Amino acid sequence: MCAKKKSSKGWISNVIFIIILGVFFFTPVGTGVKVWLNRLLAMSPNIEKVEDQKKVNYENWQLVDENGQTFDFDRVKGKVVIINFWATWCPPCIAEKPSFQELYDDYKNKVVFLFVTTDSPDKVKAFKEKNNSTLPVYYEKSAAPAVLFSESIPASYVINKKGNIVVRKFRAADWNSSKFRVMLDDLLK
């Protein structure tokens, strides 16, 4: 009889555990927890070694903004560029957006920011309204340069004035850290 009670308690605790996992992975509650964990674990991005820096050729890449206007890549010549590939459904992407927003608010007139997504304009608009975001969002009309390819998001790149990738980050980061701001200020000199 005692063994039967123990086995039924084990079965009940397993079912409860599976339900908790389901809530975590398949509901908005789980998304909030994942976003919070990503923010907690986000680190400041590091600069690439000079020998690892690759040049970006924007020649065949076409982007359009939220109003359907084609982005003119002549605007990036001689400027520092931050490119972030993201999605509205991606917890690490959501986690880093507040730090990007703060950075954008302070550097939007000094740095070219390109937040690239494949989400629908309606989803992006709803996301931006919900999060009070003013980040400039772009949609690809053609494939990004091969040096910007990543199989995961978020994928972020900082390109210096010479067109070289000096930072590449493939998970959530704290883009508003004092360490990153010092690095960005050095790139702007």
Care to describe what's here?
The protein has five helices and six strands. By secondary structure, the protein is α/β, with parallel strands linked by helices. The chain folds into two domains: 2-39; 44-188, Glutaredoxin, CATH 3.40.30. A six-stranded mixed beta sheet has the order 1-4-3-2-5-6, with helices on one face. Helix 1 (2-26) crosses helix 2 and helix 2 (28-41) packs across helix 3 (91-107).
Please give a handful of descriptors for the protein shown.
six-stranded mixed β-sheet; 41% helix; 5 helices; 6 strands; 189 residues; 2 domains; Glutaredoxin; alpha/beta
List the helices and strands and how they pair.
Blueprint: H1 2-26, H2 28-41, E1 63-65, E2 80-86, H3 91-107, E3 111-117, H4 121-130, E4 137-140, E5 155-159, E6 165-169, H5 178-188
Parallel strand pairs: 2-3, 3-4
Antiparallel strand pairs: 1-4, 2-5, 5-6
Helix pairs in contact: 1-2, 2-3
Summarize the structure.
This is Thiol-disulfide isomerase or thioredoxin. The protein is α/β, with parallel strands linked by helices.
Q: State the name of the first-level CATH class of the largest domain.
A: Alpha Beta
Order of helices and strands: HHEEHEHEEEH
Named CATH architecture of the largest domain: 3-Layer(aba) Sandwich
On the 0-100 scale, what is the average pLDDT? Answer: 87
Q: Major sheet: size, sense and barrel closure?
A: 6 strands, mixed
Helical content band: 40-55%
Distance between the termini: 77 Å
Q: Compute the gyration radius: what is it?
A: 21 Å
Tally of alpha and pi helices = 5
Number of E-state strands: 6
Q: What's the CATH topology name of the largest domain?
A: Glutaredoxin
> Which of globular, elongated, flat, extended, rod-shaped describes the shape?
globular
Strands of the largest sheet, in order across it? 1-4-3-2-5-6
